[in-house]
Design a protein that fits this description.
Radius of gyration: 24 Å
Strand content: 15-25%
CATH superfamily of the domain at 46-104: inner membrane protein cigr
Number of helices: 1
Structural class: alpha+beta
Distance between the termini: 68 Å
Shape: rod-shaped
CATH class of the domain at 46-104: Alpha Beta
Strand order of the largest sheet: 1-2-3
Order of helices and strands: HEEE
CATH topology of the domain at 46-104: Nuclear Transport Factor 2, Chain: A
Number of strands: 3
Length: 109
């Protein structure tokens, strides 16, 4: 009985030490700071994109800017334009007024 109590205490001690250590070794969440990694926003699929319309404010964030446009087979953006990647689609916008200049669907419609 006494040895069972000691073993339970040791097990509890080991668990209480192991959990914080494992949490420290956990990878940090992916904070893609403008690396052009695609962000997924389920509210606006490619059927809703229209040239000449303004991009909603929630997409005017550095996380949506495609800095690696060349590796995605996109044309170089002109001065004052940027490629955004949203839901698998590529949208060329004018940064002055955030109007859509060109749409390249990345997924089948």
């Amino acid at each position: 009985m006494k040895s069972q109590l000691v073993l339970s205490a040791i097990a509890a001690l080991l668990v209480s030490v192991a959990v914080p250590v494992m949490a420290q070794n956990a990878p940090a969440p992916n904070e893609s700071q403008g690396t052009g990694q695609q962000q997924v926003m389920p509210t606006m699929p490619h059927q809703d994109w229209h040239e000449g319309k303004r991009v909603p404010t929630k997409y005017r964030h550095y996380n949506f800017v495609m800095k690696d446009w060349k590796s995605h087979g996109l044309d170089a953006p002109a001065r004052g334009q940027k490629w955004l990647g949203v839901n698998g689609d590529y949208v060329l916008v004018t940064t002055k007024d955030w109007k859509i200049a060109k749409i390249v669907p990345g997924t089948p419609q």
